[in-house]
Write a structure and sequence with these properties.
1171 residues, mainly beta, Immunoglobulin-like, Rossmann fold, 7 domains, seven-stranded antiparallel β-sheet, 12 helices, 12% helix
Length: 1171
């Protein structure tokens, strides 16, 4: 018997499998497959994929009806004369060069017979599909999975895993539908397409949310990367009037901390091809790649910059590699006149800098509209998703307008206009060609100084190249002193757009802004296009390219969007500084608490010099900026952070009567003068470097007899010695003095660490302090593969494991020793040391073997995490994180944990004490075997999509995902949600986690269900047993048939159900189940599981008739307990080891169990403790 209760140790699950699958956004699509285990292997990865059941439709003609199957994302492979089968793919990262192969290790499928499957003959309209003309006895496609060609997304080389979960044999009239695949991805062979010279060590902080959605991402990898802020390319004509009007905008952007690089018609011929070529050259030459492109001007006229191609600016952003994936955020400040420039600059300054704290209500208000039945119900659900994401961010008033609630589109538009004029920070519209707010109505808006972000992705809203697009009108609205319209607007060109592509763009925009919480408008348009590319590029590259070109942001892509009422900083800093001081310290607080991650910029630009220094506050809210000011004058310190009112402080640089400071430092590591190193002039871990410091006399008289000394409290500086002596330094003169400051850099210093020194110039009577930062180079190791024994390491067994590492740092790593440390209570490292060969920069090596063991009570399939500490013979130290699976999970094991720590035990998990016993509790009055008299909830759901939900007060406080609730929303559709979410009674079930559906959801059987035919939803509080019961009694599906009876029990913290975490237990029970696929236009079957508050975590137990590996089929008599009350039961074994001959204790002796699960050593008294 496996005994489980609670664990006090941290429980981790790979983030990639959680986050990557929260990405699908549009209502017409959800994930086609879920990723179960992700295992790092010796040559790549293994993924376990669970596919949704495809939706089956009849197409063709009455004379020749045929069948077609589609997955949720709706991607179909269309090859002339062949069956039109669904496909599904997701991104993963590739090594810098080389090829990739895919092998299917295991597959589960069902075979459907007697089916004439639809073939494609050049026209994908339903009545143009027909039977294969010359059927062959072979399965099409001939493969189940493959990898797409490599591409580069800003920093990483990537590919898509493409799968074919439906195969057709036209001759046999058979179809195989796959529900599970285990796929191995191996990196091998030669493929130089879109190769990188080396793995990245610096990655864009603006792209980090995108990378977190990769299949193979692990959050702890951030230890191996330096996050950098990319520059901004500004495309603008070199016209004195244009530059004069832009001057306030340029100054503000630089004061905020943006690095602006201008590309003008003085640099290149002002054509699209020349601009693209220049942008590409700048990208290739930049060590830190730029993140945004700002385009100034219309497509033609007096103030103009040409479009990149056709109807848009997309191609300006195709920079990394030869693929057509956008690599930057692009926005166009479309202005037709000098006055338009002034108007929009005023709008940006009003929005970003000059915040009116007397009018803040509009930041928490939004408006969302779906304006046409021709676009379908999907636009409503997409807007509802956005509304809930806004409410999660703290919005207090998000108004909606749906086409079926208004007598005309004009009435709906008038409602939206009134709300915009009242003030909203986000306005979203999905509709049809020629509908929505008109150009004249946009110009008539009166929302002064309350300019929203607008997402209006509908036919013809972005025809800016051939005419005046609505998105242009939004940013041009207002006057030179009154900001109206919108701060930025996304629209699409042409009259030929389609709902599914538009929804994908809009969903990606909302996800980027509201869920990923990206800061800049350029991130929003980039998110829209990445979502489109990810879902449609593989098999509809032409449409993907077209819609990416047509969809454009009008507005400044570097503007940070407001999603909250502005917070206020307290900034503590000196307002004067003496010339010759090279540093300035700033503390940033909010209500006396430190603000981490704030941008702080010191800006001194005048006729004498240009000094712009940026930094970011740490966890303590502090930042020290290096400010090499050489002239007196005035400077501005700017502090900004997302959803904070910017703070600007004037700083005066004053002339000193006497002052000596440094102006230059060179490094010596050639062995001379007490130095040691490799003589390359680069400070490296383990070296003793000599600092040759050039000093400058900023005073008005000769500086005599000064010495320079240094000290450090930096953790990676072992010692500082030496003095530099300076003889007379005349006013405004410089000297390198005699001697060196010797700095002993610790061998365990990390790559790209800035070691900080405190400097003091002293002549006995005067002392001048300064700060110097030394950039350190060191090895940096990342894990590229894991080597496990055949069969892995099942619970209760042991085996050898080794790892392949790569050195992506800046220094060579010598022969080393590796120490493996378990970060998981279920993983024991019995033999924790192994050798590690030397690794030059860019090189790789495989470690020796470590002996590890899985605890006997490990849930099979658990992903265990460990830390590998590598120390070279010269003391260099770096750490890499590794993970691998412990055993393989089967249906008689529990499912979980999710990231929070929830497990799901069903009544087939009989080897576990927490497995529930099915014990139906009948609360429907008059039903056979009635136990209690429940109350019929007032839910009237009598038709397809006629969905209702009610708010119910709980009789006890219920803790769920660490949050406490006293009320729940109950839906007829087989699920509840914590709190008041009565507008999210969605009938269409989706995957978990997913942004579609309510937050804090508990779903025993989420599906289209009705309360007709005697069906109903009942509730009862069984106070003596501390449980609240909700029963869905005989609720039929959306077609009025296949009734199901199931129940949900919420437990109070009572004996037998008390948990150590405080999270209440949940029980699902199923009495009479009649599964059905429902309406053809719905997602077939149901979803069972739980989901957290921000929809980033959860347990999916069933979806589309596919079960997770630890879940038994949901049938009559099934019970499932959801609990956090899982822990490893441990005891201890202790004793003493002594010499047989004299009874003296033996110290340092290894004591272990025979299975290597427990290992320890004796202490100085010969005593040991196992457990």
């Amino acid at each position: 018997m496996k005994r489980w209760t609670w664990t006090g140790c941290a429980v981790f699950v790979l983030l990639a499998a959680t986050v990557a699958w929260a990405a699908p956004l549009a209502q017409e699509q959800t994930v086609s497959f879920q990723v179960g285990d992700r295992i790092l292997t010796s040559s790549g990865y293994e993924f376990e994929l669970s596919f949704a059941e495809p939706r089956v439709s009849t197409v063709g003609t009455a004379a020749e009806p045929v069948t077609v199957m589609e997955l949720p994302e709706g991607i179909l492979m269309a090859e002339e004369g062949e069956p039109m089968v669904p496909v599904a793919g997701r991104f993963f990262r590739l090594p810098p060069s080389g090829g990739v192969t895919v092998e299917v290790l295991d597959a589960e499928y069902v075979t459907l017979r007697g089916i004439d499957y639809a073939a494609y003959f050049g026209d994908e309209s339903p009545d143009a599909l027909g039977k294969v003309r010359s059927p062959v006895d072979a399965w099409f496609p001939g493969t189940l999975a493959e990898a797409s060609e490599p591409a580069i997304l800003h920093d990483f080389r990537i590919s898509s895993l493409i799968t074919y979960p439906v195969q057709v044999n036209p001759a046999l009239r058979e179809v195989r539908v796959y529900n599970n695949l285990r796929v191995q991805i191996r990196f091998n062979g030669e493929d130089d397409r879109n190769a990188l010279p080396a793995p990245p060590t610096r990655i864009s902080e603006a792209f980090l949310p995108v990378y977190r959605d990769f299949l193979d991402w692990d959050e702890r990898e951030l230890d191996g990367y330096q996050l950098v802020r990319g520059a901004v390319q500004v495309l603008v004509q070199n016209n004195s009037q244009i530059m004069l009007r832009l001057e306030p905008w340029i100054e503000w952007k630089r004061q905020k901390g943006w690095e602006l690089d201008f590309l003008t018609d003085s640099d290149v011929s002002w054509s699209a091809s020349s601009i693209r070529s220049a942008l590409q050259t700048r990208w290739n030459q930049a060590e830190t790649k730029y993140d945004y492109i700002v385009i100034i001007g219309d497509a033609s006229g007096g103030v103009m910059t040409p479009p990149a191609s056709g109807q848009g600016d997309e191609l300006y952003g195709h920079l990394a590699g030869s693929d057509n994936l956008v690599d930057v955020g692009i926005g166009r400040i479309s202005v037709a006149s000098y006055d338009d420039i002034t108007k929009y600059v005023h709008k940006v300054l009003s929005y970003e800098r000059d915040v009116d704290m007397g009018n803040t209500g509009w930041y928490h208000r939004g408006m969302l509209a779906a304006g046409s039945s021709l676009s379908g119900i999907s636009t409503v659900f997409l807007s509802r998703y956005a509304r809930h994401a806004m409410l999660d961010l703290g919005y207090t008033d998000v108004d909606t307008a749906w086409y079926y609630d208004y007598p005309s589109s004009s009435a709906l538009n008038n409602f939206s206009i009134n709300k915009i004029n009242t003030g909203v920070s986000l306005y979203g519209y999905r509709g049809w060609l020629g509908q929505g707010i008109s150009e004249s109505q946009i110009n008539g808006l009166t929302n002064t100084d309350m300019t929203p972000v607008v997402v209006d992705v509908t036919c013809g809203t972005g025809n800016w190249v051939t005419g005046l697009g609505k998105n242009e009108v939004y940013i041009r609205a207002g006057t030179m002193t009154s900001a109206r319209g919108a701060i930025g607007a996304i629209g699409t060109a042409t009259s030929g757009t389609h709902t599914r592509f538009n929804n994908s763009l809009v969903g990606g925009a909302y996800y980027s802004m509201l869920v990923q919480r990206n800061r800049a408008m350029g991130d929003i348009i980039r998110g829209a296009k990445i979502n489109l590319w990810m879902n449609y590029h593989i098999f509809e590259p032409g449409q993907t390219a077209s819609f990416s070109e047509w969809c454009n942001l009008m507005g400044d892509p570097t503007v940070w969007v407001w999603t909250d009422i502005p917070h206020l900083f307290t900034v503590n800093t000196a307002t004067t500084m003496e010339l010759g001081t090279n540093f300035h310290t700033v503390e940033v607080l909010e209500n006396d608490s430190p603000v981490e991650g704030a941008w702080v910029t010191f800006y001194k630009v005048d006729n004498d010099e240009e000094v712009i220094t940026t930094g970011t506050t740490g966890p303590d809210g502090m930042v020290t900026l290096e400010v090499p000011v050489r002239f007196t004058g005035d400077a501005t310190l700017t502090v900004t952070a997302q959803n904070f009112k910017p703070e600007q402080i004037d700083i005066t640089v004053t002339p000193p009567a006497e002052r000596v400071g440094y102006v230059d430092v060179t490094y010596q590591d050639n062995g001379a003068g007490g130095t040691s190193g490799n003589a390359n002039g680069v400070p490296e871990a383990g070296e003793t470097v000599g600092l040759i410091v050039t000093a400058h006399n900023y005073g008005g008289s000769t500086a005599s007899g000064f010495n320079l000394s240094a000290s450090s409290w930096d953790p990676f500086v072992s010692a500082v010695n030496g003095i530099i002596s300076y003889t007379d330094i005349a006013p405004d003169a410089e000297s390198t003095g005699t001697g060196m400051i010797l700095v002993e850099i610790a061998p365990d210093a990390q790559h790209e660490w800035d070691a900080e020194l405190s400097l003091v110039f002293s002549n006995g009577t005067s002392n001048y302090e300064d700060v110097l930062r030394i950039p350190v180079s060191a090895p940096q190791l990342v894990t590229t593969s894991v080597h496990l024994p055949a069969g892995g390491i099942p619970p209760g067994q042991n085996g050898n494991v080794s790892f392949t590492l790569s050195n992506v740092g800046g220094s060579d790593m010598g022969v080393s020793n590796g120490v493996l440390v378990s970060l998981d209570p279920f993983l024991t490292v019995a033999e924790n040391e192994a050798s590690v060969p030397a690794m030059p920069v860019g090189g790789s090596a495989t470690t020796g073997n470590f002996l590890v063991a899985a605890h006997p009570t490990t849930v099979p399939g658990r992903i265990a995490h460990a830390q590998l500490i590598v120390t070279s013979g010269t003391g260099q130290v770096d750490t890499a994180f590794v993970s691998f699976a412990l055993g393989n999970r089967v249906a008689t094991d529990p499912e979980g944990p999710d990231n929070y720590g929830y497990y799901a035990f069903d009544n087939t998990d009989t080897e576990y004490d927490l497995a529930p016993t099915y014990d139906w509790v009948e609360i429907k009055p008059g039903a056979p075997g009635n136990d209690y008299t429940g109350v019929l909830l007032g839910i009237n759901d009598t038709g397809d999509d006629d969905d209702e939900a009610v708010l119910v007060q709980l009789p006890f406080t219920f803790q769920y995902y660490g949050e406490e609730f006293t009320e729940i929303t109950v839906s007829a559709n087989g699920m509840i949600a914590m709190g008041d979410q009565t507008d999210m009674a969605l009938a269409r079930n989706w995957t978990i986690p997913s942004p579609l559906g309510p937050n804090y959801m508990i779903a025993p059987y989420w599906d289209e269900r009705m309360t007709t035919g005697g069906g109903g939803v009942y509730a009862y509080y069984d106070a003596p047993n501390g449980r609240y019961i909700i029963e869905w009694y005989s609720v039929p599906d959306g077609q009025g048939s296949n009734p199901c009876t199931f129940e949900l029990i919420l437990y109070d913290q009572v004996p037998g159900h008390a948990t150590y975490s405080g999270d209440n237990e949940i029980l699902f029970q199923y009495a009479t189940m009649n599964h059905s696929s429902g309406w053809y236009h719905d997602n077939p079957y149901w979803t069972t599981g739980i989901e957290n508050g921000d929809q980033s975590d959860g347990l999916q137990l069933a979806f589309w008739l596919a079960y997770s590996s630890g879940t038994a089929p949901i049938t009559n008599g099934r019970a499932i307990l959801i609990t956090t009350n899982v822990r490893m039961i441990t005891g201890s074994i202790q004793g003493t080891v002594t010499r047989l001959d004299n009874g003296e204790p033996i110290e340092g002796l290894t004591v272990r169990t025979t299975d290597y699960v427990f290992t320890t050593t004796t202490d100085e008294n010969g005593q040991y403790l196992l457990g």
